[in-house]
Amino acid sequence: MDLAAEIRSDTMKAEENLVKRLQAKDQMAANTLVEQYANRLLGVATLVLGDRHLAEDAVQDTLFQAITHIQQFRGDSSLYSWLYTILIRICRARQRKKFWKLPLFRKEESWDQLVDPNEDVIEQTVKLDRQQHVRQAVGALSPHYREVIALFYFEELSLEEIGRIIMKPVGTIKSTLHRARKKLAEILAEEGME
Amino acid sequence: MKHTDSLSKRLQQEMKDVVFSDIQRAELATRLSRKLVESNSATFTQRIAAIWNGYTEIPLTAGVVGVGVISFILISAVTNLLVIDQSTALLLLQSSQGMTDLRQGVSLL
Hints:
The complex is a heterodimer of chains A (about 190) and B (about 110). Chain A folds into two domains: about 1-105, Rna Polymerase Sigma Factor, Chain: A; about 105-194, Winged helix-like DNA-binding domain superfamily/Winged helix DNA-binding domain (Arc Repressor Mutant, subunit A), CATH 1.10.10.10. Helices cover about 75% and strands about 0% of the residues of chain A. Chain A is built from ten helices and no strands. Chain A is globular, with a radius of gyration of 19 Å. Chain A starts with a helix and ends with a helix. With about 110 residues, chain B is mostly helical. Chain B folds into two domains: about 1-55; about 60-110. In chain B, about 75% of the residues lie in helices and about 0% in strands. Chain B contains five helices and no strands. Chain B has helices spanning about 5-15, 20-35, 45-55, 60-80, 85-109. The longest helix of chain B is centred in the middle third of the chain and has 23 residues, at about 60-80. The model of chain B has no long low-confidence stretch (mean pLDDT about 80). At the A-B interface, α2, α3, α4, α7 and α8 of A face α1 and α2 of B.
């Protein structure tokens, strides 16, 4: 068995073990679930929703849904693709809600949270702008493009896995990804990035 | 599958600070473990609330109260239109009787 196959087999065993512990209501398993998946899910949710606070809520809801329905998880897919399926569904519901939500009530990240008072402000502004260029460009895409970009480029899932999560054929995912990449390149070119 | 594309690297680099803090993760784990030991069988009302909360911004209780109030107003308005008091009913009966008499008279002629 080669190294990659061995790692994959170990990961699957660890996932199966985690699911069994969750189904047996082992409280420490909840801790493992958070440690292993919360931050990965948050990255995808932030890219899909384009809002950190909404993304945090979406991830919490995802994990709660997973815990609530863990007895129904039969292992037909891997735990992480099941979690992403729930997350994407929740993100879509959040996007519909976001449309109606008044921006007046949304908590924005304050300038103080973003900059370090000990460093030069102009330098930090340029740095921040450069740091978030691709992220902002992804945010300018339409929601279904953001989903495939986040899962393919950020989470590095295969087209087959994305197809299972989004519930669309691989061919559709491939063409969506191609269009998303083209659109992203256009946005980045407009902003003077490669 | 690892994508060696530079876009992956740049995106992951930009997103490396997007993480839950230690406190947030600890709180989340505590709440999840509490949820885990609770009964997994959600009641009918809990399921309805979950569907409702997934699609609307209005709390379920407020929604039910709102629909109740609107229904009450509508029913009251429609009922008022349909209700006929005794004197109106008598008048209607008399006029219909009068019409019958008139028709009978016309047919005799």
